[in-house]
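Chapter review: from sequence to fold.
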Amino acid sequence: MNIMATAVQKNSMKPLSNGNNLIVHREVKEIQNIDDYTNIGQCIDSNYTEQFEQVPNENITEQIESEAEPEIDIVINNVVCSFSVRCHLNLREIALTGMNVEYRRENGMITMKLRRPYTTATIWSSGKVTCTGATSEDQARIAARRFARCLQKLGFKVHFNNYRVVNVLGTCSMPFAIKINSFSERHKEADYEPELHPGVTYKLKDLRATLKIFSTGSVTVTAPSVAGVQAAIEYIFPLVYEFRKERTAEEIAMLHAVKKRRLAGGISVDVYNGPCKGENDNTEQTECETEDTW
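The token string follows.
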């Protein structure tokens, strides 16, 4: 093989690769001047050694780590918001005249549903309304105003007031499994009770966020806003990265099934950035979305 390599290079061919995408940059003239073919192997070995010495191992490691940097998709599953209409609501009248309404007399409240965006509102006689089921903060606000418009059409003097996002539920899947036993032992602020819950509970007081970390690499986050969910994931990633492990075939299959269910019910933060509106919004819906109509 060494004789063939020298013969090819004598015919003014390009320098050969050593199989690791590292080209030997030794000049061809030095190989052409070799008369004793028994020393060719030593010459080529010295060339390889010099080439590896020129490329530090740290640079190679950094390049591999930068190329293997994983991407994590955060899926927002639920945004809970609340507002007040500042008037007394007759629940019985709403149940008789309203649409998509369920009256729960034993609980003293009414549930009303919308198809677009697909949300559910819980209405109390005091005028307080809680809206759940939205997959973004913009969707939650649109749904809240549409619920208020529905109550206004039923004859109540509605004033849209005290709107706020109460809670956001987000989920993500790490590109690796997690050794939650070692993680909980290292971080004392983590709460792990395997008899009660299969995941580790990790609370962030600054972000007011609560994380549930599972051994499969799945992480569930509850925070006051979408930005808080993203900040919590960015905070916890380097902590769990130290305790990563390879997934089993069963865990991979289970994660694929869970991911399909999540994508069917939620919207990824990386994909969704703008407000979510219906394709055929009429004038009545547009008025509900503006502040000037109230």
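Two observations follow directly from the output. Residues 1-35, 64-68, 267-294 have pLDDT under 50 and may be disordered. The first strand starts at residue 75 and ends at 84.
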